[in-house]
Amino acid sequence: MSAPKIGELRLRMGLEAPVDTPDDSGAMTRSYVTIADVWTKLTPLSGEARFVEERQEQALEWLAQLRWRADVTSEMRLVAGARRLRVLAVYDPDGRRRFLWCRCEEIA
């Protein structure tokens, strides 16, 4: 895959970072806070049916391409409307800090 043209980054998504807070039982509760809105290009990579706890779920993988940012990690997620994408891996495709590719899994 080649680097996207700037005009191809047309989907506005919220970049969310996790925030863990302790609850009354001593466990942690994870919530997310939006740290930025980014323009992205989404490309579908794969789709499969999985069995999780004896029920079938759809798993969709996407490649989200966006302008390079130094603060994106694999603990974050991208959100657009009802679509939530968990970031699995983050990498700079050519090492020039122009674009960032995020391999994501859609959260059902």
Descriptive key words:
108 residues; mainly beta; Thrombin, subunit H; Phage_SPP1_head-tail_adaptor; Head-tail adaptor protein; SSP1_head-tail_sf
The total beta strand count reads 6
The secondary structure category is: mainly beta
H/E series: EEEEEE
User: Strand sequence of the main sheet, in spatial order?
Assistant: 1-2-3-6-5-4
The portion of residues assigned to helices is under 10%
Provide the CATH top-level class: Mainly Beta
CATH architecture call: Beta Barrel
Give the domain tally: 1
Terminal-residue CA separation: 27 Å
Shape: globular
What would you report as the Rg, rounded to the nearest angstrom? Answer: 15 Å
The profile of the biggest β sheet is: 6 strands, antiparallel, barrel
Per DSSP, the total helix count is 0
CATH superfamily: Bacteriophage SPP1 head-tail adaptor protein
Describe this structure in words.
InterPro entries: Phage_SPP1_head-tail_adaptor, SSP1_head-tail_sf. This is Head-tail adaptor protein. It comes from Methylosinus sporium. This protein is mainly beta and 108 residues long. The chain has a single domain, classed as Thrombin, subunit H (Beta Barrel), CATH 2.40.10. Helices cover 0% and strands 67% of the residues. It contains no helices and 6 strands. It has strands at residues 11-22, 28-52, 55-67, 77-80, 83-91, 99-107. The protein has a 6-stranded antiparallel barrel. The chain is globular, with a radius of gyration of 15 Å. The model has no long low-confidence stretch (mean pLDDT 91).
